[in-house]
Structure formats: structure tokens, C-alpha cells
Amino acid sequence: MSGIGGARAALSAAAEPWEIQVGRDLADRLDTKPPSRWSRPGAAAEDLADLVGPGEVVLAPSATRPSGDGVVWTPEQALGAGARGVALWVDDLPYPRIVGAIPYPELIAVEHAMAGKHACLVLTGVRTTLVFRYRSWAWPAVADLLTHVRSRAHRPGAPEPAHAGPPALGWERLPASPLVALGHPRHTRYLGAEPELPQRWLWQQSRPAAFVVLTRQELVVVRHVLGRRPLTHGVQLLAVARNRITGLGTRDDRLRIAASGSRYEADLGAELAEEARSRFEPMLHADGQRRVVRKASKAPQA
Prior knowledge:
- The protein is of the alpha+beta class.
- The chain has 7 helices and 17 strands.
- It has helices at 5-10, 24-30, 42-52, 139-154, 178-181, 230-233, 270-297, and strands spanning 20-22, 56-60, 63-67, 70-74, 77-81, 85-90, 98-103, 107-115, 118-125, 129-135, 189-193, 209-214, 218-224, 236-241, 245-251, 254-259, 262-267.
- It has a 7-stranded antiparallel beta sheet with strand order 10-9-8-14-13-12-11, with helices on both faces.
- The chain starts with a helix and ends in a 5-residue tail after the last helix.
């Protein structure tokens, strides 16, 4: 699975300052297995709560990952979503453990990518970007935290979805699920494309099924491999705050989204990308016009 924005590149990006390059023989011994249950390290929970307020915390145990530098070892990480924002904690003593935080009003986009046993969540804010890498088996917990972050950022003060969705929820209902529509599917508009199967050989990679969803809060792009439950096995996802989008475009098979000085891309196939641009761009343009008119109406009269 590939083709969703910067999260795909972040999966194998060069080592972070807190990561250590290791040899292949050592990497095999350092690799972790899925824990029997989730735990919240005391230091991480306390540090995150002090900065962004008490809330949900997802722990990523220390593990290795492929990178542009070979294989690197990542210490234990924790991503926390509190009342005031989201922050990333890394067990990197004696250096500061909080490596970055994004207040909810500054959240611009969320990107998620998976490739085999590796997964990556990228949160982009006005002033900083948080990159949380973890093993794919932890996706259900990450999906819950991701839903809470987006709900708090784009619907302040509203009740949060209780859960990203039951594990049995099928692909056909995903555009209306809390993971995509934040629990309010009534005003959701979406376009979809069936998966493109291999033309000749079964072992050839097929194009995943895809949806482009426009809600009151976000433009969401979701891709999923046929035959795998999205809320159990994970999705490729890009969610951009609707009020920060400045334009849509296409390039070959990709939908391009311009937002707050940044550009995001998703590989959807030429037909779906063009349909999403032509259908949703007028709606987003009308949003911008309404914001300008509302702002102008508040100006003092001469």
C-alpha cells in the first residue's frame, strides 16, 4: 500500500536525532514482538499531561525500522492527545523528551501510511510536524487516537466519537464511519473507485480501492487493499482541514491539495483524481468566498 502524501516517504526517511544506526545482525536481536497488552509509561503520561493535558496516550515500544541510512533503532515513543493539543514524547534521556507539540487550532493535516509491518502517522501543524512511527499491529489503538485528535481539532466542544468503529465494520461503510466522518456522516459527500485488479498475474500488485470524502471539517482521502478490514488492518489516509485548503489540482494519477502554504498528494488514478477536483473544488471555493464576506461584514462602517 502506498501513495498517500508525505507519510509514505516518512516510513523510510533518514534517521531522526534520537535514532541510532545499527547493523543487520544487531537489528534482528533488537526487534520487538507485539506486547500482550497496552501500557502507559509513567514518565510519558506525566510529561504529556503537563504540556497538552490528560488524555489518550499510545505507546510505541523501541524497535528498528528501515531508513535511507540503512537500519536504525528507535527508542520508545508515546503520542499523546490531551485537552489542548497533541504531542510526541521520545525516551531520549538526557535530552528533552517532548520533541514537539501542536495545539489543536494549528492542526492542518493528518497523514497515515502502512507498508508491511511498518506504519507511520504524520501530523502537520502551522509551526511544527510530528512523525510517529510504529508497528502495524498497533493500528486499532492509533486509529482511536487519530479520531480523537481530528475531532478535537475540527469540532471543538463537540462530543467525541466513542471509538473509531467496531472491528467488523466493512469497507463499504467506511466513508460514513467515525474514522472518516468524525461521527457525523449526514453532511458527508464522497466519491469512490473500485480496486483495480492485476491484468494478468495474481502476484502483481493491484491498485487499492479509494474514496475521496468531503465533510464539514475536512477533505479526506482513504485507500484500502481489497479483502482486508480497514479498521482492523489499517488504511492509507490523508485528512486536510477544510478551512485551510486553498486549491485542488491533478497531476497524472494524483490529486493535489494546496493548504496553508503546503501541498499534499494522493495517488488515486487519473479518473477519480479529476472527478474529485471538478466536484469538490467549487464547494471549497464557495467556502473561501463565504469566509471573505463574513470577514468583510465585520469591518467598521465609514
